[in-house]
Amino acid sequence: MNAPDTPFPQAAPLAPMPVVRPTNALAIASVVCSAASWVVAPFAAAIIGVVLGHMARKQIREGGGAEGGDELAVAGLVIGYLHLAFTFLLLVAIGLFFAVTLGALAISAPHAVGP
Fold first, then answer.
1. Helix (H), strand (E), coil (C) string for the chain
2. Is 56 inside a domain boundary?
3. Could you tell me the residue range of the domain that residue 70 belongs to?
4. Does 20 reside within a domain?
């Protein structure tokens, strides 16, 4: 039996598989803690989220592109810092409220007249 005159059709080359970089775990934890700071543990979770966000960005930079998640780390930082700023403004507003209230009470209180 002779070899066929037409060769087998050539298959198109396969496209390379896209490389999926793993997401940095600290970046995920940063977003989770910062988001939880608005609901569960107001002040502590925001600080933890900010610290984890900075640690995640450092690991991602030093990793040379082996891990992704820089966007998540930045989101955790933004959410955490916003929460800390709102907490600070709220504490200032409460302090001003009490200062004004106590000042008004001191001015309007009747003064005892001496003998």
1. CCCCCCCCCCCCCCCCCCCCCCECHHHHHHHHHHHHCCCCCHHHHHHHHHHHHHHHHHHHHHCCCCCECHHHHHHHHHHHHHHHHHHHHHHHHHHHHHHHHHHHHHHHCCCCCCC
2. yes
3. 25-105
4. no
- In a domain, residue 8? The reply is no
* pLDDT tens for each residue of 6-61: 667 777 788 888 888 899 999 999 999 999 999 998 889 999 999 999 999 999 99
What length is written for the chain? 115
**Number of domain units in the chain:** 1
Q: For residues 79, 82, 88 and 93, what is the CA-based torsion angle, rounded to 10 degrees?
A: -120
pTM as predicted? 0.74
* Structural tokens at position 25: 């775990």
Q: Is residue 111 part of a domain?
A: no
